[in-house]
Amino acid sequence: MRNYETSGQSQHHSTSPPVPEPSDTETEGLIFYHMDLYGSKERFDIFPEEPSGRGDRSLGDTRRESALSSEKVQHPQEVGYDLEKEVAELAKMYGLDEDREKELELLGGHLEKVESRWPPARTEKAGLQGGLSSGGVSDEWNSQAVSEEEEEEEEEEEEAADVFCSTCKIPIRAFDKLFGEHKDHEVAQLPSAVESEKEEIHKNMCKLEEQIAQMENVASHLEEIFITVEENFGRQEQNFEVHYNDAVQVLAQKYEEQLEALGEEKRQKLEALYEQLVSCGKHLDTCKELTDETQELFLENDKAEFMKVKKFLKQEVNLELSTLPDFEERVIDVSEVEQLMNSINAIPAPCAPVINPQAPNAATGTSLRVCWGLFSDDTVECYQLCYQPVSNERHSDGQAAPSPPIIKNKKIQSCENAALVCWESRDINPVDSYTVELSKLTDEENEDIITESIVGIPNCEVLIHLQPTQKYHICVRAQNLGGSSERSEPVLIHTTGTCFYLNEDTAHPLLAILDDGFTISCDELENPECDLPVYDNSFTRCIAILGSLIPFPGKHYWEVEAEEDTEYRIGVAFENTPRHGHLGANNSSWCMRHIITPSRHKYEFLHSGMTPDIRITVPPRRIGILLDYVNCRLSFFNADIAQHLHTFNSHFQHYVHPCFALETPGILRIHTGITTPPWTALP
Amino acid sequence: MALKQVSSNKCFEGFQKVFEHDSAELKCKMKFGIYLPPKAETGKCPVLYWLSGLTCTEQNFITKAAFQQAAAEHGLIVVAPDTSPRGCNIEGEDESWDFGTGAGFYVDATEDPWKTNYRMYSYIKDELPKLINANFPTDPERMSIFGHSMGGHGALILALKNPGKYKSVSAFAPICNPIQCQWGKKALGGYLGPDASKWEAYDATQLVKSYSGTRLDILIDQGKDDQFLSAGQLLPDNFIAACTERKIPVVFRLQQGYDHSYYFIASFINDHIKHHAKYLNA
């Protein structure tokens, strides 16, 4: 049972399963046995050879499982099976044909018997003469008959034997070595031979003990299987009962319906016929009256009166039957019942699927990706997904939900495609994981729509992939069993360009960072007092500082503004670049250096202390630096006039960080978050 | 202005061709090499003009510089004309390698007997682009120029004398200040006469001092072991000093160990093609 978390409505971990639908009997009905039965490969070492490679273990298991399930379902009459047959079948499925006879005996619960027949369990002497081959159990068995014969022979000569013939594996008299058939054979002293054989036997004993233990293991597994099979068939019985009951119910319902319809028809017909009968009677009466009247007229003999009577019969009598006496043909619809009946045995109900653990990035505020897998190749028409929200309130175990974390606003590193956000938990309650929620800000829409969330972050830092040239609000929640914290204060991230921060820990003591966090200054090159604090990680020689750049293999661009008379080194360096050296003087840093000679501005592009000889006629005031991991280059530009100055082509083995150093008093202004200008693409 | 194809070879999915035509400006038959990138089959491409150095024909660059791959990649048509009129039967034209045939110096001669034929400046500036634009799928608005040695001088003066005409300019070991060097003095004196003030119109360093046109981004590569550098024929320092003063952006790269040859050119041709592509494809 998996607990998934969405970000919009955060949930805490829970052990209570989602409530299955009551009609869900099919999906539950045929779980055969727990996968753990196959979990450990070692348990099956007793089977000499797997039909499939070991690596395919789980796959093989599922196939067997499905084969098993379909077989069971197809022969429901075998419910009253006998244990041995069942077990034999199981063994067959495990591909144990070659060992079948042996296994059958074992699996049939005759472990004691096997033990008594085991050759090494016999007397030491017999073992010595008998199954001494170091081969498998079967070898020993095969040789058993032979060894018994030998045994008889040996007993006659036994008292005289004093040496051991290694070739024939029998004790002989020393005399035989000299003259007998063992003349050319290799012999050993009996005691030493006995020792070595004892050792051999001991080994075999150990092996046997191991095998016995494994057998016992298998026996207990078989017991488990026995129970599971029993359970499964019980379930299947229930299943059938439910199905057949359904079918019977449907049939009964049909019967009711038919009966009712028939009765209604009968009533209608009878009514119609009765009405006709009544009207017939009326006509009859009228006719009789008319006859009487006519007879009276005949008697009267008044001609004039007689002629008056013209309306002899003004009404025609309908003598047709108003309704058909026979009943209408009725089609009895049994398709539903058929369907029900068919559904019972045609396809076995599938095993319960297993829900995968929630993957990172699998949820948004309003949606959740749930994945699951099947063990066997069951035929599945559709899946039914049940879920219920887990309460945000305090869990029954009483643990309190954590307080919201605090995002370290100044330590955000970002670029066009990603952001590295870190935060701190200010909680005494344990925090299991964090969820980061991001909402993309668009101009017109409401800003609070969470567009993505990343759940299950174990530590206080996450690298988030983002889209370029967007704005995002990012906030974090902490989670533990008690539930989820409130959201942290959101931070705003623009993915217009690369943003890094200056790592104060690396700053040389004479280097100061101004309040904006991106201007570095140096007032004096030597400190008369010389007692400035030096941190472990800070530059000691070069008045330098490192930036912390997001470890993301894309393009990063930033600019540095310098006065024309400021001497500096700017570039990139590995995080572990030597703190006691100069930037560019080693192979862990690459930088542009500006120095002023009496005659001119001099520019060096240093790596490992080497620079090309380059003259630049217009001193750049604003230097653009492009770090392009993809094309393996680090380029410097005069950003004011889009002039390319130099490119280092280097395949950076690790992620690098921006570095800045001042060599004369002055300031450097660092600009981040700049869109990479198109003119940096070439060269 | 009929073009006659002299050769055509497939190269990096495009074609390296040589054509011959009758030049009105030079009054002789002229050849030029043209590389048509694969992109030229479907659309208009910018044109990059290459000017070769002393003694060269249209062949040197197209066979030795290995520029075609980069040109194909960036979709540039590259035109490499000859370096002087040929076969004009002018007395003394074949006497020395640094004057006359193969040494047109990209000027319009004003002196007899050169002034009729030796009009390479006008040929490169007007006649050739007109011819190219009329016969090939070019975008006339996008052209750039570069060259080597005497051709580097040619590229620089053409760019500096015609602000806006070329999107970008670059040079390999250019003759930066011809009025100060032996080659320049001989050629300019011969074509333009003894009045040195007239020469300044064809001197890159002098032209920079009065340049006030659109911004140019100039890339120059120079081999440090170039014998003509040490012989004082190229004088890049003068040019750089002038550019520094006039704040004309130049990146000048002194390449350790390289000489004046096409091996040097081939080593850095990709950087130059990219430099031009940046502006031509912007």
Automatic annotation (TrEMBL), chain A:
SUPFAM superfamilies: B-box zinc-binding domain, Concanavalin A-like lectins/glucanases, Fibronectin type III. Pfam families: SPRY. Residues 147-161 have a biased composition (Acidic residues). Residues 245-276 form a coiled coil. Residues 1-16 have a biased composition (Polar residues). Residues 44-66 have a biased composition (Basic and acidic residues). Residues 1-29, 44-80, 119-162 are annotated as: Disordered. CDD domains: FN3 (cd00063). InterPro entries: B30.2/SPRY, B30.2/SPRY_sf, Butyrophylin_SPRY, ConA-like_dom_sf, E3_ligase_FN3/SPRY, FN3_dom, FN3_sf, Ig-like_fold. Keywords: Coiled coil. This is Uncharacterized protein. It comes from Geospiza parvula (Small tree-finch).
From TrEMBL, chain B:
The keyword Hydrolase applies. It is found in: Cytoplasm. It comes from the Eukaryota. The keyword Membrane does not apply. One of its GO terms (biological process) is formaldehyde catabolic process. Pfam families: Esterase (PF00756). The active site is at 149 (charge relay system), 226 (charge relay system), 260 (charge relay system). GO terms for molecular function: carboxylic ester hydrolase activity; identical protein binding; S-formylglutathione hydrolase activity. GO terms for cellular component: cytosol. Keywords: Cytoplasm, Hydrolase, Serine esterase. Belongs to the esterase D family. Serine hydrolase involved in the detoxification of formaldehyde. NCBIfam families: fghA_ester_D. This is S-formylglutathione hydrolase. It comes from Geospiza fortis. The lineage of its organism: Eukaryota, Metazoa, Chordata, Craniata, Vertebrata. The gene is ESD.
